[in-house]
Structure formats: structure tokens, C-alpha cells
Amino acid sequence: MTLPFFNTRLLDGERDILLKAVHQVATDPEQRFILGRRTVELEKALREQFGAGDVVVCGSGSAALVLALRALGVGPGDEVIVPAFGSEPLAGSVVAVGARPVFADVDPQTMVLDVDDAERLITDRTRVVVPAHTFTAMADMPALVELAGRHGIAVLEDAAIAQGAALAGRHAGRWGEVGLFSFFPVKPLGMPGEGAALVTDDPEISRAVRMLRNHGQDGVHRFLHHTVGYNSRFDEVLAQFQLNRLPVLPTLVEQRMRVVDRYTQAFAGLAHRGVRAPAAGHDGRCCYVYAIQVAERDRMRAHLARRGIGSHVHYPVPLPRLSAFADLAPTGRGWPGAEHASARHLALPLWPGMTDAEVARVVDAVCGFAG
Ligand SMILES: *Cc1c(COP(=O)(O)O)cnc(C)c1O
Prior knowledge:
Helix 1 crosses helix 8 and helix 3 packs across helix 7. This protein is of the alpha/beta class and 371 residues long. It is 37% helix and 13% strand. The mean pLDDT is 95. The chain has twelve helices and twelve strands. The structure holds pyridoxal-5'-phosphate. Pyridoxal-5'-phosphate binds next to helix 3 and helix 4.
């Protein structure tokens, strides 16, 4: 029996939630399928959950980055600081709005933005810094907010994967001028489809992203376009799905966190054998992907595969080393933290509802390799 890396199957309860959502929307006399009252209700529910000024849902996490950068006024001639290790849209979104991504290194162990390197890269063209929470670690938000304040730049907090995470009592996504969560299926707030939520206390930002997600219209006057926007609207079936599921989300996050804790406890003693696990504890800790670092990563991966256990290398190449961004990366500079993370990280199976036996199987295999 193989143990997959991803488990994108809907949990039994979720299958019923999806079927119910389809039925609710399909039989609604209103017959409205995009940006209807369910979308409005979902935004309200998330607004209350986050205690935020506003929440705007849109087509994807990648689109949310573009909408947020545009709402922050970023365009040609501007620079945006992004981590050198992470998801492609972190830099792709900056290019999409005509600005320049400036790659800051990451901490080799936590794999999130190195605050000192970010500060060294600030110029008079820098408009925004985009920290991203990565795998099980939140970025150092207090330090980044302080740094941004000192330099008069904005913080766009990419909390795509950080549902349920908090640092010093403050929820992920609530530190910067604007934060975002992805609804991509395998993320902690994932659903059977594409979507994302933007969270902000700034009414100007929320007004701007609302217009930008619907071709620059203001929601009152149709076909009066105030600016050139995008089609990044939200689907009513998916809004209903998320609404139906909000009550069970904390349980799903807890289940993920329990797996994270068991792994961390089991791997704590392996550091001297070349296997490094994330730090223990829950403060500043996410529960998306559990990635260890292994010097002999590819051998570990093969060892797990021989035992039928799936694993994943998320970002095998630092962003500035990808062909897509090569001509934007300054020559002669290195990103040793990002290179280290790319060469060593290995993500292990993790999903809510993973059984104790499944976790034990992964633990035994990892510990067996190190021994
Ligand atoms: C997944 C992800 C995105 C993009 O979200 P999509 O909804 O897949 O477009 C952006 N940033 C980070 C850190 C992500 O993990």
C-alpha cells in the first residue's frame, strides 16, 4: 500500500458539503452563479472571523497578489522585495504589474524571508515587501512591520498557506496593509476549486481590489470601467461550500497540527544524523507542508519511495535561478539561504485525518534512514 504525498480526496463530510452546495445553488430561484449573495455572506463570515475591516474574495491566490500590488499602487519603475525561495507567483505577480521583483535571501533553517537582507535591498524605488509564510513557519512579521514602517513601504503578507496560524496572538494575514489566503485544494483553507481571500483594514485597498477583480467596475454602475482590471470573480457554489465548511475548519487545522507535532517530536533527536526538523511549539507555526531538511535529500527521497511513501520537493530551484526570472536576477549575487533550502528540503505526507498508523509509518521510515 502506498502512502501518497498529497491527499486531495474530499473527506467524507466534505463530499456531502459540496453536493449540498451544488444543490443549494442549482435550486435557488435567484439562479445567480457569480458574485452573488453567497459570496457576500462568505466575505462577511471571514471578516468576522479575522476581525478585519474587510475581506474580498477573488479568483486565486496568484490573482490576489496582483490585485493587492495594483491596489497598493505598484507599477512600472517600482521595486518589490520578495523571498528568493518560494512560490512562483511571489515574483510573477510583480512582473505582471510591470514592476521589478528584488530577491532577498531566506533564513537557511526556517526558509522564510531574511529580514536583514530585505533591509539591505531597500532603495528609493522600493514600494512593498512581500513576506510569505512557508511550510510550517511564519515569516518574522513583527520585524518586517517595524522595518517597513521605518522605510515608509507597505507590507503585503502572503498567508496563502497560513490558515489557523498566529504569532504572538496575532493571526497570519493580519500583520501587513493587506494579507491573502489561497483556497487552492491542498492548502489549509483549500476547497474543490480555485479562489482566494484578501484581508485588509484599509478601505481604500478594499475598494480598489473590489473594482480590480471585476474589470474596474464599482459594483453599482455596470459597464462604467474606472480602471483596467481583471476577471477575478468568485463562484457561488464555492462560496456556499466555504460557508458550509467554515464551522469545521478549526478541527481540520487542529488535525494537521497534531501530525506536525508528532513529526517534530519524533525527529527532534535526528539533527546530529543530518536530518533537521522544524522547531517545536505553535507560536508562529503553520500546518501546511511539513518539510525536513536532509543533507542527502535525494537518497532520503528514494529510501521513502522504496517504502511506498510519497514526498515532495516544492522549490528545487531558488526563484532568481529560474529561467522565468533569470534576466531580473542581478549577476554575481548569490542566495545561500535559498540554495540551502532548495537543495535540502523534503516535504512529508500531511493532511487532516491522516491516521496514527500512517504517521507512524512515515516516522519509522525517516528514522530508519537516519539510523
Ligand atoms: C499557493 C500559493 C500562492 C498562489 O495561490 P493560488 O491560489 O494557487 O494561485 C501564492 N503564494 C504562496 C506562498 C502559495 O503557497
